[in-house]
Amino acid sequence: MASFSPPAPIASASEQTAGDVAPTGGLTELERRLLDEYQRDLPLVPAPFASIAARLGTDEAEVLRLLASLVERGIVSRVGAVFTPRRAGFSLLAALAVPALRLDEVAALVSGYVEVNHNYEREHGYNLWFVVTGDDEWRVNRTLDDIERRTGLVALRLPLERAYHIDLGFPLWS
Amino acid sequence: MELTARELAVVGALQDGLALVPRPYRALGESIGLDEAEVIDVIASLQRDGVIKRLGVVVRHRALGMTANAMVVWDVPDDRVDEVGAWLGVQPDVTLCYRRPRRPPSWLYNLFCMIHGREREAVRARIHALRESAPLQDIPYAVLFSNRCFKQRGARYRFDGEGEREG
Predict the structure, then answer these.
(1) Domain boundaries, chain A
(2) Would an 8 Å CB–CB cutoff place A26 in contact with chain B?
(3) Looking at the complex, does the CB of residue A12 fall below 8 Å from at least one CB of chain B?
(4) Least trusted range by pLDDT, from A96-110, A156-170, B38-52, B85-99
């Protein structure tokens, strides 16, 4: 398989830690266009990055270098698919009302599951919100049972019943 | 609709994203024993069937300064939730809009949407405007701003081991 060495990180280590840092400055015009115009419809052709490069007036190596750098800087999580909830498996939004003093510990425990992708603190009595995914409903519920057992807390289980929104990606500079 | 074994293999290989190499679909195929054309075919059919919602650059909006993130939940009468949801789902700045079950007595809200922005004030103004709109007038609601993000990455639907955890 062809290999590609990512360039040296551009952001400093401290900027890469949490994922909620804001290195908004320092985006080049080309980077902005990559982020804005390619959140959907990545070309389904053998050399998609060459095709993007042709449209952006640059070359394939530059597109690959910029994408690797955006991943490195925490701005892009990946180049890939966003799946429709419940079409490729089962997922569930769950919430816990965690005593303030235990929040860090419980959040770390929840984040420790591969089945958990998003995990956020929110300002509410139910203060920890996370999404559990899995092959099927049984596996997702088993994960939640395990979280409840280990934390001694009861989770709100809020499966999606109907989606009213079509995801077109995220308008960044409109 | 059940996915075929080939489709499941592609979903599994795709969940961490494509390799940033000149021929990413070929690279993905090599890991699951499909050739490049088959991978492209399967992805196209997953897109056509709506299993893949979008394929492209997945941006971490918090890293770009979109740090004000509100989940707004509404307690809409059951006979109106589809109508209100369909309206809310197409409003500008609403990035997700789902109906979920109530869990009385602790949770009475059945309609969820997300609104993102660079500052809380702008997000609050947007929510205020939504509340003033006819479909949502007098609907009980709550705003849950996100505080810390402990984890954010793509969903995983396929697991090789049992009960595995990340380190």
Answers:
(1) 13-72, 90-159
(2) no
(3) no
(4) A156-170
Q: Which CATH class is domain A90-159?
A: alpha beta
- A83:B157 CB<8 A: yes
Domain ranges within chain B, ordered by starting residue:
5-48, 61-145
Topology given in CATH for the domain delimited by B61-145 = Alpha-Beta Plaits (3.30.70)
- ipTM for the complex shown: 0.75
Q: Of B14, B20, B76, which to mutate for an interface test with A (greatest number of A Cβ within 10 Å)?
A: B20
The per-residue pLDDT for range B118-151, each reduced to its tens digit, is 899 999 999 999 999 999 999 999 999 998 888 8
A134 min Cα distance to partner chain B (Å): 5
Can you give the pLDDT at residue A166? 61
Written in H, E and C, the secondary structure of chain A is CCCCCCCCCCCCHHHHCCCCCCCCCCCCHHHHHHHHHCCCCCCCCCCHHHHHHHHHCCCHHHHHHHHHHHHHCCCEEEEEEEECCCCCCEEEEEEECCCHHHHHHHHHHHHCECCEEEEEEECCCCCEEEEEEECCHHHHHHHHHHHHHHHCCCCEEEECCEECCCCCCCCCCC
What residues of A are in contact with residue B53 (Cβ under 8 Å)?
81-84, 167
